[in-house]
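haha ok so turns out i had the wrong file open the whole time. this is the CORRECT one, sorry everyone. sequence first:
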Amino acid sequence: MRRLAPVVLVLALSGCGAPAAEPSLARSSPVPAPAAEEGPALTCGSGPLTITYLPEGLTRGRGFAQISSLTERLKVRGASWRGGGEELRVGVVCGVRSAERFASLVTRSALTAHLGKPALRWHTRGDVRNYMWLERPGTAVYVSVTPGLARELDRVAAGVAPKEGS
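then structure:
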């Protein structure tokens, strides 16, 4: 089954079959002003990404340069935020150029989509939720949250976007 996932992903991304309906991440109520100045600009050298939403009550923590779930060693740049015993991590994984390679980066992950882009979801020890998508060739975006922030995962992911003017 694992070998079939990259084939299905390639066919889906190349337009074979009917387009899949995307779940809406937007909320019907107004959203607070973006927190762009709080988040770091993240880049793999091909245009920076920025974080436009951070949950309240978190303060900037340490950066990170490794994601232990990855099956191969890749360059990682990330930042973390902590508060109330919870942690949010957002980063970029550099060097993943194809959907096939991306689909095999994390064992025991579920292949899904993020705004039409290939994505992976998985849980690690302590019920930490991990989510990563291939933003563009060479750049994958990684978001993880501890259980107390699980409801914020999709909203944080939806708030990671190319920095304006780049």
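Confidence is low (pLDDT under 50) at residues 13-39.
again sry for the mixup
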